[in-house]
Amino acid sequence: MKFWFAIPLWQRVIAALILGIITGFVWGPEAVAIKWIGDFFIASIKMLVVPLIFFSLVAGVASIGDLKKLGAVGGRAVILFLITGQIAVWLGLALGTLFKPGSTLDTSGIQTGAVPESNFTGWTDMIVQTVPDNPVRVMAEGAVLPLIVFALLIGIGILMAKKEGEPLISIFDSGAIVMQKVTAIVMELTPFGVFALIAWVTGTLGIDALAALGQMVLLNYLGCFLLIGIVYVGLLKFVAKVPVIAFFRGIADAIAVSYSTASSSATLPVTLRCLERNIGVGRSVSSFTASLGATINMDGTAMYLGLATLFGAQIFGVDLAFSDYILIAVTATLGSVGAAGIPGTGLIMMTLVMGSVGVPLETIAFVAGVDRIMDMMRTTTNVTSDSTIATTVAAMTGDLDRAELVSADDV
Ligand code: ASP
Prior knowledge:
The protein is mainly α. Helix content is 79%, strand content 0%. The structure holds aspartic acid (ASP).
């Protein structure tokens, strides 16, 4: 027992990831027998999402101290979300144009999956849905975006109430600290959850499924690695000016959890913990930027939507003009903003992007079989982007405790 806890958590998690992959390949589809351990883990972190966002976001906003500073943090975060999102979509389009993953593919041997139903009802509805019409329902349903709006408003109210708002500040502060402790307990399940989930995914997919759509899967991974290796590393090195290796070691738990769960929302408690404890991002900036980012900043998804639409155009021989590329960029950006941070939403948003430029939705059936393995990498990219942007914003606004990052060796 003592030996177990002596190993830093992130090392235990990475070992679990590697062992899980090996187990999955050896065990094959039967590995589904241990999926329940992964489901148990996901349910445990999901439990944290609503109270954690609520307490730490309200406490975070209240601790910013004044509305001007809140605008400075929010404005910078949203601009960085937009810039990285655009780079991501155009990267996906560039990779699809350059490598033409669908042009030489023999689709006859691929097992197709079901095309998911789109629950997209229109942009105006999407805007209306950000209003927390009934805060209790929003919490009960775990609707993250309206919950963020509600928590922001309560935080702003506390700031406006000045002296009279102070008792609430201490309640929310204390709530946020308690939630961090509960997160620490749940985090101890990570190695087991990660092991089971990875074994299940590799066991179910196997090598055969991957081989048929190999080029598409590889391009998805390549795009994500380029985003992480160039865009985020660039931001960290040149704008935030933080040591890059120490940064990635600090968010290792969030990377492993996002990769195995394929859900930015479920990873959020872990992301927040890594940012605050290991990177030294101030709580107000981390809770604001990472919570919002987990819902609206999805670069991996945006990149993938661009790439997959070109893939569909290539297998079905649809000619696309440059104006179509622009349309794809716009709809993929909006689709990635609208996508919830749960497994497989990228696939659902594809209906929207493909529909806008006349690419047959049957494309989705082709990629559906291997979507999970791509979803895992997109989600890791999404979470890395949120963490990078939270760190960059904190560096810009003076909310980054650089000593914390350097001393994060023994997390
Ligand atoms: N699963 C992704 C996420 O949670 C979204 C997607 O499907 O691309 O970030």
